[in-house]
Amino acid sequence: xxxxxxxxxxxxxxxxxxxxxxxxxxxxxxxxxxxxxxxxxxxxxxxxxxxxxxxxxxxxxxxxxxxxxx
Length: 70
What we know:
Blueprint: H1 2-57, H2 61-68
């Protein structure tokens, strides 16, 4: 009779770990989505800073592009 308990115990552990994995996967996907949003916000801020610097110095897009491609 000891074997059925052990089998039930293993199945319970499997279910517990599967539940934990599902929760961690959801948490990971949410964090990944947040990271994507934050990186997009960062790029927008950087683009605006670049445009502001171009306006301040009177540089055109082509001039900046030429400088970057040197």
